Amino acid sequence: MSTSPSVIDLQYFQELHDRRYHVDIHSLPLMRRVAHLHQHLVKYSSSTVKRDQTYPDALACLLSMANAFNLNISNGFGLNEYAVNTLDDIGQEWCTDVMMEKYRQALGHMAKLLEASDHTEDYEYRVKAHSAILTLFNLLIQMYKYEGASSGHTLATLYIKKIFNLKTKHIFYPMYHTEDLERHPIYRSFNSYLATI
């Protein structure tokens, strides 16, 4: 993979992973599934050290959230903003303290959405969820570029490596892996990319 993978390819790769390896969460009702992913994001942002160690995990959760809401992240930023085809297209906008505060606020907005759904409040769930997911995604990529890029790896690279590592822990990994290599070109492409890391 000579260029960065597209965001929609990352979303598809995550969807394949969730259907195979996280069927317990993938099969939950929508808001229960999103609540589970939100809890992971809160946990990952609980400290600077935790955040630094879990950027790929947080990206996986955000891709899963977008998939749950049928949100194509690339299209979500709209024509009036900037095109986001790959993670490289996210620009740096704020210093780290501002990014963290905005990230916490977006997590709070998602918490409000989840809490409102429990009360069946009159709330624009889909619009507000899309907005929160896009904000979290944008900020996560920026924070990684500011804090984690010194690792020498792109976040997309770390994410792909992490997901393939997680797969190997499943008892059906050999069978699933063989089948996915045969059926899914994106999976095959990402698997080949691992050999170059």
Q: Which term fits the overall shape?
A: globular
Proportion in β-strands? under 5%
Q: Report helical residue fraction.
A: over 70%
Q: SS-based structural class?
A: mainly alpha
> Roughly how many Å apart are the termini?
10 Å
Biggest beta sheet attributes: none
Mean pLDDT: 90
Low-pLDDT runs of 5+ residues are: none
Q: What's the total number of strands?
A: 0
Q: Radius of gyration in whole Å, from Cα?
A: 17 Å
* Order of H and E elements: HHHHHHHHHHH
| Count of helical stretches | 11
What does this entry look like structurally?
The protein has 197 residues and is mainly α. 71% of the residues lie in helices and 0% in strands. The protein is built from 11 helices and no strands. Helix 3 runs antiparallel to helix 5, helix 7 packs antiparallel against helix 8 and helix 10 packs across helix 11. The protein is globular, with a radius of gyration of 17 Å. The chain starts with 6 loop residues before the first helix and ends with a helix. 28% of the residues are buried. The mean pLDDT is 90.
In short:
The chain is mainly α and about 200 residues long.
Tell me the layout of helices and strands.
Layout: H1 7-21, H2 23-26, H3 30-44, H4 48-53, H5 55-68, H6 73-76, H7 96-118, H8 125-148, H9 155-167, H10 173-183, H11 185-194
Helix pairs in contact: 1-5, 1-9, 3-5, 3-7, 5-8, 5-9, 7-8, 10-11
Question: Which key phrases capture this entry?
Answer:
single chain, 197 residues, mainly alpha
